[in-house]
Amino acid sequence: MNATMRPLRSGVRVLVLAATVLLGSGCATTASDPQDPLEGYNRAMFSFNEGLDKAVIKPAAQAYDAVLPSPVRTGVSNVFGNLGDPWIGVNNLLQGKFADALSDMMRFLFNSTFGIAGVLDIATEMGFAKHDEDFGQTLGRWGVGDGAYIVLPFFGPRTLRDAAMLPVDMSVDPVSSVGHIPTRNTMTGVRLLNTRANLLGVDKTLEEGTLDKYSYVRDFYLEQRRYKVFDGNPPRVYEDFSRVDGDSLPLGRAADELAAVAVEDLELLGVGDFALNARTDGHFN
């Protein structure tokens, strides 16, 4: 099998599995949020992913964190971040953000050479900002709607639009495309452990700070995806679903700015069930 097609087919199998579970849940699924019509299924999958994280991923990440010093973990984060910059640049190009696309390519060039294969993030020091784009965001910029909220097994929270594009992102992922299976599996494992290790402590914050962890994760994920699609400047409206006239209520500027700050500092990743992406220069304690 062609190495490039392998992750694409793997991603398709995951989506087919999710669709099968959805059909199985059928009419038993009830929802209290119009953006989450699959809430019954989603809560079950959320619990499954959370159990997997607690039983396997988190303990392994804690061991990883205990063995490797912070500078080494930062270097590992930089390497994987550098590998993702070309695809980020392609998505910026497809969105018509040519300056950002050029910046992404320059980041990859400088960090891959002078940054010792990306271990050092010298591009940021040179003024080339790190961006975060994927094909789901690109479709959002083109006007494709989010669709319903869905929690995928292993990959965590998505919208239907982003879930459908997951195989595309996986097919161009440099790690998933490595042809040598032991090398690919090792890199995938290290990336997972490094990302999860950067998030240690976040789960405790979530447990103590919210009564309904599932709802908090869902609402935050949907809001941060909206901010990403609009590059931090989404239309400032509050959808009042109790209204029947289709109007929206304007959102206060102060609340909008607070949300922007929150999304700048915390970003969701599909690692296990829920993860807040710590910046590459440190991790939560």
From TrEMBL:
<dbReference type="InterPro" id="IPR007428">
    <property type="entry name" value="MlaA"/>
</dbReference>
<dbReference type="Pfam" id="PF04333">
    <property type="entry name" value="MlaA"/>
</dbReference>
<dbReference type="GO" id="GO:0120010">
    <property type="term" value="P:intermembrane phospholipid transfer"/>
</dbReference>
<keyword id="KW-0732">Signal</keyword>
<feature type="signal peptide">
    <location>
        <begin position="1"/>
        <end position="30"/>
    </location>
</feature>
<dbReference type="GO" id="GO:0016020">
    <property type="term" value="C:membrane"/>
</dbReference>
<comment type="similarity">
    <text>Belongs to the MlaA family.</text>
</comment>
<protein>
    <submittedName>
        <fullName>ABC transporter</fullName>
    </submittedName>
</protein>
